[in-house]
C-alpha cells in the first residue's frame, strides 16, 4: 500500500522533509506508521500524546486502519501569534 505522509512544524524541521510517499506492506495504522518514521525524527517509537493525527484531512484515532492512497498527517502543538 502507498501512503502520503505529511509532517508539520517541529516534526518537519527534525526530519528534514515535509511530504513523503511510503510503500507499506500489509495493513497498518497511523500508530504503526509513526513507529516506522520515528527514528528519522529522533523520536520515541511510541506516539507522544501531544501529536495529533489527521487521515485524509480529518482528525483520526491513531489506531484507525489505513488504506492505499491515504494521506496521514502528524501535527505537533503549534504556538505563535
Give a short account of the largest sheet: 5 strands, mixed
Helix share bin: 10-25%
Beta-sheet strand percentage? Answer: 25-35%
Give the terminus-to-terminus CA distance.
39 Å
H/E element order: EHEHEEE
* Number of helical stretches of at least 4 residues: 2
Structural class per helix/strand content?
alpha+beta
Radius of gyration: 12 Å
**CATH arch. level architecture:** Roll
Q: For the record, what is the CATH homologous superfamily label?
A: Beta-grasp domain
| CATH topological fold name | Ubiquitin-like (UB roll)
**What's the CATH class, please?**
Alpha Beta
How many discrete domains? 1
Low-confidence stretches: none
Overall pLDDT level: 91
Number of strands: 5
Which sequence of strands runs across the widest sheet? 2-1-5-3-4
Shape type: globular
Task: Please provide a brief summary of the model.
The chain is an alpha+beta fold and 81 residues long. The chain has helices at residues 9-15, 30-41; strands at residues 2-7, 19-23, 52-55, 58-59, 71-75.
Give structural attributes:
alpha+beta
Account of the protein in words:
- This protein has 81 residues and is an alpha+beta fold.
- The protein has a single domain (2-75), classed as Ubiquitin-like (UB roll).
- 23% of the residues lie in helices and 27% in strands.
- A five-stranded mixed β-sheet has the order 2-1-5-3-4.
- A hairpin with a 2-residue loop joins strand 3 and strand 4 (58-59).
- The longest helix is centred in the middle third of the chain and has 12 residues, at 30-41.
- The protein starts with a strand and ends in a 6-residue tail after the last strand.
Amino acid at each position: 500500500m502507498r501512503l502520503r505522509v505529511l509532517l508539520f512544524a517541529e516534526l518537519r524541521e527534525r526530519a528534514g522533509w515535509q511530504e513523503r510517499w511510503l510503500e507499506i506492506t500489509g495493513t497498518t495504522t497511523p500508530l504503526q506508521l509513526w513507529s516506522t518514521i520515528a527514528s528519522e525524527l529522533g523520536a520515541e517509537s511510541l506516539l507522544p500524546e501531544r501529536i495529533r493525527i489527521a487521515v485524509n484531512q480529518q482528525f483520526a484515532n491513531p489506531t484507525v486502519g489505513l488504506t492505499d492512497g491515504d494521506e496521514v498527517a502528524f501535527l505537533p502543538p503549534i504556538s505563535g501569534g
